[in-house]
Amino acid sequence: MISYILWDASPEIFTIPEFFGIGPFPVRWYGLLFALGFLVGQQIVIHIFKKEGRSLDDIDALTLTMVLSIVIGARIGHFLFYEPETLFKNPLEVLIPPYSGLASHGAAIGVLIGLWLYARSRKGTGQTFLYVIDRIIITVALGGAFIRFGNLMNSEIVGRPTDVPWGFVFLNNTEFRQIPRHPAQLYESISCFILVFVLFAIWNKYKAATPRGLMVGVFLVWVFTLRFLYEFLKENQEAFEANYALNMGQILSIPAVLLGLYFIVQSRRDPLQRNIVQTTSSR
Fold first, then answer.
1. 41 in Cβ contact with 66 (< 8 Å)
2. CA distance linking residue 147 with residue 240, whole number of Å
3. Which of 105, 237, 108 has the alpha carbon at shortest distance from 175?
4. Main-chain dihedrals φ then ψ at residue 139, nearest 5 degrees
5. Do residues 34 and 144 make contact, with C-beta atoms less than 8 angstroms apart?
6. Where are the domains of the chain?
7. What is the 3-state secondary structure (H, E, C) of 76-143?
8. For residue 77, which phi and psi values (nearest 5 degrees)?
9. DSSP code of residue 163
């Protein structure tokens, strides 16, 4: 007996009716989850700063940097990696909603650049690039979990056909709704949720003494190694990828993993880490 899950969730929660000739406006799960990632993530950063005795004055600036870095990076990344002809012909489309195309690799690059600029503006406060990104990366993992669940609610980025009992038939996806498929969005969402707890456990162990670069390294290796593997279970997002041995998501994941390994190796050379090792050895 073949078993599977019929997935017909609506991407819309409700619709705000027309008011004085403006509207109507649909409220979608994807947008709500996207915003929720930032709101919950901000509370995590506030908790971390309080535990480490840091001022909360920079929280709003840090949050704004994150929002702009992720949205702009993800949008530019989508067009650069998947629709370069659109980016060069009509670059303003990057800024025009709805934001239907967001690339996780672009978001990662955007976060690295945005936090580097933020850290440069906070010299003398102890908020170095690696210090900031190691704390923020927990919220990035949380945001990734929410966004991938939003993809599931949109019945997009679907997996390839499967006969596993948890296969999803995406009834609202007119292109891929006929047969059970891997719920690849759910795989990635669960993986990111697990990563949130792993990263928080690392921080909770060391707190202010967390080896610089360790957490961002773990994030990059975890997320993009799994992304590389999950792509074997997913349908290609663009037609041109059918001509490649590896699709664009896998090609872009390789340098991300290598960068993560670099951060992990460098974290072992962090003076804070050497102090921890020396203190432990002297006991």
1. yes
2. 25
3. 237
4. -70, -30
5. no
6. 29-237+245-281
7. HHHHHHHCHHHHHHCHHHHCCCCCCCCCHHHHHHHHHHHHHHHHHCCCCCCCCHHHHHHHHHHHHHHH
8. -60, -40
9. -
Closest CA to 174 of 187, 191, 156, 192: 156
> Closest Cα to residue 100, out of 121, 128, 79?
79
Say if residue 148 carries a ligand binding annotation. yes
pLDDT in tens, the chain (283 residues): 568 899 999 999 988 887 777 777 888 898 899 889 989 999 999 999 999 999 899 899 999 998 889 888 888 887 777 777 776 777 766 666 655 567 777 888 888 899 999 999 988 888 999 999 999 999 999 999 999 999 999 999 899 999 999 999 999 998 887 899 999 999 999 999 999 999 999 999 999 999 999 999 999 999 999 999 999 999 887 667 777 788 888 998 999 999 999 999 999 886 655 444 443 333 4
Alpha helices, DSSP H, located in the chain: 29-51, 59-82, 84-89, 104-120, 129-153, 184-206, 214-230, 248-267, 271-281
* Cis amide linkage into residue 271, ω under 30° from 0: no
Which uninterrupted H or E stretch holds 28?
A: strand 25-28
* DSSP letter, residue 177: -
Judge whether 228 and 255 are in contact, CB under 8 Å. Answer: no
Cβ–Cβ under 8 Å, residues 163 and 180: yes
**5-7 and 12-16 beta bridge pairing:** unpaired
Task: Assess contact for 219 and 260: CB atoms under 8 A.
Answer: yes
3-state secondary structure of 234: strand
